[in-house]
Amino acid sequence: MDTTLIKPYLKWAGGKRQLLPEIKKHLPRNVTEYTYYEPFAGAGAVLFALLPEKAVINDCNDQLIMTYICIKKEVEDLITLLREYQRKNTKEFYYRLRNLDKDTQSFNQLADVEKAARFIFLNKTCYNGLYRVNSRGLFNVPYGTYKNPPICEDRVLRRISAYLNNRDISITNCDFEDALAYADGRSFIYFDPPYHSPDKSGFTGYHANGFGDGEQERLRSVFIRMTERGAKCLLSNADTEFIRDLYKAFEIIPVQAKRAINSDSARRGYVPEVLIKNWKD
Ligand SMILES: C[S@@+](CC[C@H](N)C(=O)[O-])C[C@H]1O[C@@H](n2cnc3c(N)ncnc32)[C@H](O)[C@@H]1O
After folding, report:
1. Domain-by-domain residue ranges, the chain?
2. What are the tens digits of pLDDT across the range 228-279?
3. Residues 6+ apart with CB under 8 A from 18
4. Among protein residues, the one whose CA lies closest to atom 5 of ligand 1
5. Which of 44, 46, 65, 195 could form a disulfide with 238 if both were Cys (CB 3.0 to 4.6 A apart)?
6. The domain 17-58+167-277: what is its CATH number?
7. Positive or negative: CA dihedral 267, 270, 271, 275
8. Centroid of ligand 1 to alpha carbon of 18 (angstroms)
9. Is 15 a pocket residue for ligand 1 (Cβ < 6 Å)?
10. What is the pLDDT of residue 26?
11. Residue 263, Cβ neighbours under 10 Å: how many?
12. CB 173 within 8 A of CB 59
């Protein structure tokens, strides 16, 4: 199986490609012997960099997870539709596809492959590549006017599909806590939650319900429970006092990452982040 060219097929707020060199320095020794868990998978930058033999990838975003499943099961039909959308790419076409979710009944009747092609098309052509839903869960980003957006990366999609089919990869769409039900001492978990944002200026629009301080606290409880089960856990988050205090019992490693996606252009650039690790080598 040829795994070259494999990379995230979406732009995703909080995408981890910039932080990969730091993350790679802090993986467990013999990482390939572990079942890899990514309960907040997003575009999967770490998954596609590690390409584990056995993994559980999860996200609460149903459109995102349906798209992973379509790439796994229906990649040729998906590519055919994406080629068509690439030819039709105009502002008018964008708003026609974007507005489909306003009518829930007819949206639900679309085939999964049509929803997945819509999701990828909107992701590649929307303003800043920023997936964002409003409080009613509707995708609400304007058209981005890119010159030649790579809407149909057929070779990347085919190789991702082959990887998902030829390895033992479970793809789930649930809350992070439920996704870890079977994690144990042979698991390596990389947590990449929506970042803590004390002044609420960070990006939190992945999901209509948001991810506030209470959710960060619930995540810390899960991190502790997984530690008690013997799983190796690595977590990234913003470097804030609140996060440092939550994880003070663990090793906290400061790192700097370049962030391209932020709704406020003044906040793009290098932002202080931390990696939190629950084991010593
Ligand atoms: C920082 S992003 C992950 C970025 C990803 N590592 C990447 O490289 O693209 C956080 C993800 O958590 C997901 N999420 C938010 N709340 C969640 C929850 N309660 N359970 C599972 N996933 C959740 C969001 O949909 C989003 O995709």
Report:
1. 17-58+167-277, 67-154
2. 999 999 999 999 999 999 999 999 999 987 665 555 555 556 779 999 999 9
3. 257, 258, 259, 260
4. 42
5. 195
6. 3.40.50.150
7. positive
8. 16
9. yes
10. 96
11. 17
12. yes
